[in-house]
Amino acid sequence: MSESKRETPPLFDDAQETVEAIHRGIVDAVVVMKGADGPQIIMLQGADEPYRVLVERMSEGALTFGPDGVVLYVNGRLCELTGYPAERLVHRDIATLFEGEAPTLAPNVSLEASLLRNDNTSLPVSVWAGPVSIGDTSATLVTLTDLSVHRRAEQIAAAERFARSVLEQSTNAILVLAPDGRITHASWMAAELAQQPPVGHTFSEAFPLEAESGAQAGTLAHFSAESLDTLLASKPFHGVEVRLQGENAAKRTFLLSAGPLLDDARASVGSIVTLTDMTERKRAEEQLTMLVAELNHRVKNILAIVQSVAAQTVRSSGSLDVFTHAFSGRLRALAIAHDILTQTRWTGIALKELLTAVLAPHLSAEQERVTLEGPAILLSARAAVPLSMALHELTTNAIKYGALSVRGGRIDISWTLTGGEDQSAELSWRERGGPKVEPGTSSGFGTVLIDRAITYDLDGTTKIDFDPSGVRCTLAFPLRDQASSPVNAPRSAID
């Protein structure tokens, strides 16, 4: 110790007296040992403010303890950090100031510890210690820096990184709104939809809604832009269908939802708004509705066909056995067409595939009694059922009375395409090698069904010639693209 511009005070034997002298302003300087660099003298008098005033104004807590670990001095900031008055800290063992084991203090080394507080909590602090010489007495100066603010800042930064990661990875448009309705954070999808950086704008500025009719849209239709922003920032709601203006959102439907954003005290500090693209789901729902309606229509048509075929078969059957056989065959023809259409998801069927399926139950592979020849033709779903039933009638007649009723009989089936853009198909059915067709053969219900199926359902024409060498039949019909149209019942079904 030394004193400038006054008598040198007597050397203090006790470090506590030296600390008290610092408080009273008696001592002018403190010599702080700095190892190899030599002593550093901190002036207490002659500076702008006395040392004791500087220590008291430090933002860090400070204390001095002696070789026995007993605290000799604490500043006011340390009292604030612990919540204890100075007299409760001085003369205590320094180890009792910390939670758990006391930190092992090494000169000029910073480490972290937990400082005990008066309210039974602990405070994270950074502890630094350095040697101090007071005359012949060795002591240690300790500074304690509050880390709670830094920890809180780290937690906030970590939360910010987490939130940013969620926003960057999300495939939905996610927005964070401040209480005044302005956007503070936005996911990349939200920025894509807005076509501009949305942060700093209100929701209505960044995402103007498109006027839309309907019950869902009506829930937001009566809100102005300002009131909508206030609603999103203050009131939770979920799943309102909206459409947005702008090229990126054209013809797309979104579900708009909003919910409160709460802090640690569960107080509202804004809201989270999401825009979920439901365009595909909406399209799927509409398609499902259409398919159900079409299925209902098809079922009604099938029932009408069955009813008509049953009634007409009864009229043309002489006995129950004849009716059963004829009616069962016609139902099989109807089922074959529907099986194939189901496999192709009602997109249509190749003419050759339909012919093979209709003839297969009556022929074996070894006989090769039927030839099929013609270009590839895709029939619409609408054409499959009536054509299947017409072909079934021709096949049944050939098995009972024609070329397939004897071993040597054959059937040649060929087809061609005619016309330009409005193409038509012409199918030729020629039987040979069968029993001689007797003159005056009259047409029965099968012939009537063929004529009505082609004429009324396919807008085509039929020509059946009962030639003595074998039946000849020509079916001509346009190939309209009706694959997406529902299958209609033959008009014979309602005659």
Could you characterize the architecture of this molecule?
The protein has helices spanning 15-24, 51-56, 76-82, 86-89, 148-169, 188-194, 203-206, 215-221, 225-234, 279-316, 320-343, 351-359, 381-400, 445-457, and strands at residues 29-32, 40-43, 61-65, 71-74, 110-116, 122-134, 137-146, 173-177, 183-186, 237-242, 254-262, 268-277, 349-350, 370-373, 378-379, 410-418, 424-432, 461-467, 470-478. The protein is an alpha+beta fold. It has three domains: 15-146, PAS domain (Beta-Lactamase), CATH 3.30.450.20; 151-277, PAS domain (Beta-Lactamase, 2-Layer Sandwich), CATH 3.30.450; 283-494, Heat Shock Protein 90, CATH 3.30.565.10. It has a five-stranded antiparallel sheet with strand order 4-3-7-6-5. Helix 11 (320-343) packs antiparallel against helix 13, helix 12 packs parallel to helix 13 (381-400) and helix 13 (381-400) runs antiparallel to helix 14 (445-457).
Number of alpha- plus pi-helical segments: 14
Number of domains: 3
Largest sheet: 5 strands, antiparallel
Q: Strand-residue fraction? A: 15-25%
Report the mean per-residue pLDDT as an integer.
Answer: 76
CATH homolog superfamily of the largest domain: Histidine kinase-like ATPase, C-terminal domain
Indicate the overall shape. rod-shaped
Helix content: 25-40%
Radius of gyration: 49 Å
Return the CATH class of the largest domain: Alpha Beta
CATH topology of the largest domain: Heat Shock Protein 90
- Tell me the number of strands: 19
Class computed from helices, strands and strand pairing: alpha+beta
Order of strands, main sheet, comes to: 4-3-7-6-5
- Uncertain spans, ≥5 residues at pLDDT below 50? 1-15, 31-51, 213-218, 482-495
CATH architectural grouping of the largest domain: 2-Layer Sandwich
Distance between the termini: 127 Å
